[in-house]
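A quick word before the example. In earlier lectures we treated sequence and structure as two separate objects. From today on, think of them as two lines of the same record. Here is Sigma-54 dependent transcriptional regulator written that way.
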Amino acid sequence: MSQLPLAPHGNYVDSAVIFNDRPVKVESTVFEKFPGTIAVRGPCEVLLASLQDGPQYDRLIATLRRSNVTVHLCHGMRDIQQTLKSHDCSALLIDAISDDQDLAITEDDIGHLLSQNAYLRLIALIPSGAILAPQLQEFLRLGWLYDFHTAPLDVRRLLYCLGHLHGLVQMERKYATFQKATRAGYGRIIGTSPRMQKIYESIWRISKVDTPVLLTGESGTGKELIAHTLHDRSKYTAGRFVAVNCAALPPNLIASELFGHEQGAFTGAGRMKRGLVEEAHNGTLFLDEIGDMPLELQPHFLRFLQDGSFKRVGGTASLKIRMRLIAATNVDLKEAMRRGQFREDLYYRLNVLAIEVPPLRERENDIEILAEYFLQKFSLEYNRPKMRFSNKTIMALVQNNWSGNVRELMSAVSRAVVMTPGTLIKPEDLGLVAGRALSGGAADDGEPAPDMTLFEARDAFDRQFIAASIQSNQKNILRTARALGVSRVALYRLMKRHGLSKQDVSMSEQGGEM
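And the structure line, produced from the sequence above:
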């Protein structure tokens, strides 16, 4: 193997470290003296693998500890594995300065270690002007070596490196947690479709900042639930979540409802009243149907957004609050601007961060998941026995347009749980009609109906063909699967997809070969 020359040291992200301008002297043969100290945004823990043991590491460990970096000195693989059981370490420092060509950890050890610890990175400490040891060359070739530092060590650079690395590892851990949490849903939001996964990621990022958020989408898509989730994950989670439906407030009282009023501000104002904006102090204000806010109130609200201050109706004192603002609308605000019904400056003030919530018909993968969730929820709530959907019902649910979105689906399932006499919910119990593909989808002569789509015709033919094969094989599952050229498990899946009951076939394992 050819020897690799050392590359110049890389640059690191400054945001990962905190600076302190007080000079600190470090007396050691391995360190350069440097002005000022750097503290990693920690706590950060690292491993130092070395065959040596002695006072040469004391100053290194003490200096790093003052900068929020804890060093665990390990003399071999067993020490490293034992330490990792109880400590989340970001880096493994391999000492090639003291150990020269004989390292404390082998290539096989590293391969095993990295496979078991996804967030661990390798950093080599090497003599100045030296050629990388053969083991380190191999680590570099395999992409295992995150960085290297030469003696005498520049502590500032080492801390830059550790700070950047620690921040990177923390971000990776958070994102992995986010991915795990969003496989079936996020908070109280349910869904696994690609569109919802993008929304979960937006929530995860947006919840960390105070910027106003605009939620757009049809009625019933779950915009308020998303607003609740943003609130729960923001720094204002301890405060109130105040929801205001702008379309439901009386036009002549909306200013008073939002900003409050002083005593005697108008007829009937017998005492001072705090508005909903004031109630949301240190919390979240959710303005639903923002597109229905009266045009004459919009300048006052714009002024409030600009500096966080407002006056109660009839008052002269300027009040200032801190809160998170989330607005939602089911109308096209750009079209409302063209018609002169919504101020352009207010729109751009609100539309800094936007989340478009898709209609349920564009989330086909989520329909069955949501329906099953509502079925369990309402079965418990109404004290009904365990209920289930028939296969035809599931297909009808997925094929329905759901113009009322999640709200309509929830109402349909709630009604079915109450009204269905048995435990099996059929399409008609939900007010749905099983489609042609559900009922066989063919005309009386066995041919696909002429008004079918290509997908429906294929689906109808597949169902009819599978049903005929089951009958011709005396309802024996093994014989039928063999005749169709599929496995028994695959045949069960096809039967479920096309609404064919297992009761239609024999469960006997005899009478056929696979």
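Notice the following. The chain has four domains: 14-174, 185-358, 361-430, 440-514. We will return to this example when we discuss secondary structure assignment.
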